[in-house]
Amino acid sequence: MHKPSRSVEFRFLAEPTDVNFGGKVHGGIVMKWIDQAAYACAAGWSGKYCITVSVGAIRFVRPVLVGNLVTVEATVVHTGNSSMHIYVSVKATDPKLSNPLETNHCIITFIAVDADGDKVLVEPWKPKTKLDKKLQQYAINMKDLSIQAENKLRES
User: Fold this and answer.
1) How far apart, in Å, are the Cα atoms of 72 and each of 88, 98, 101, 155?
2) Which of 71, 77, 75, 60 shows the shortest CA–CA distance to 22?
3) Contacts of 76 (CB under 8 A, 6+ apart)
4) Torsion of CA 135, 73, 14, 54, to 10 degrees
5) φ, ψ for residue 85 (rounded to 5)?
6) What is the model's pTM?
7) Residue 10 has pLDDT above 90, yes or no
8) Is the model's pLDDT at 50 over the cut of 80?
9) Residue 56 · residue 145 · CB < 8 Å
10) Distances 106 to 58, 87, 123, 139, 141 between C-alpha atoms, Å
11) Which pLDDT score is estimated for 57?
């Protein structure tokens, strides 16, 4: 029987191959890390293959530098019938220091699917702490904003 796991944490060093023309880690590389951690979190929660539905409000707070120790933490903060809303926080620091600072955060939504690609139900998640409730509300707000934006785009 599958036991849902609510969060995952990846830790690694930012490599020279991750650098953009400005000498910092490329934003696309950071987005790849976010997607990978969020997928692992969604798959761990659902026990199923998961598909990215949306990425909301990705924030680039400060750059990640080559050689930084990077921590990417992905946590389930809201569930629907088949959807999982994952809050991802990226932090980085000099590995000789112990002062990780947030560089990025966002919400990614996944749906769990079966072998035929059809949506399947996921275990509901319920907030327990004040922070859980705050992050769940943030996810719900991001979902609502996304729906509103999509509706405006469809208007003629």
Assistant:
1) 7, 15, 12, 37
2) 60
3) 4, 6, 7, 41, 42, 45, 84, 85, 86, 125
4) -60
5) -100, 120
6) 0.92
7) yes
8) yes
9) yes
10) 4, 6, 22, 9, 12
11) 81
Dig out the tokens for 131 from the structure.
Answer: 């922070």
pLDDT average, residue stretch 66-79: 97
- Whole-number pLDDT of residue 147: 87
Only one residue has tokens 């980085």, namely 92
Please write the tens of the pLDDT for every residue from 116-140.
Answer: 999 999 999 999 999 999 999 999 9
Q: Which residue, chain included where needed, has tokens 């569930």?
A: 79
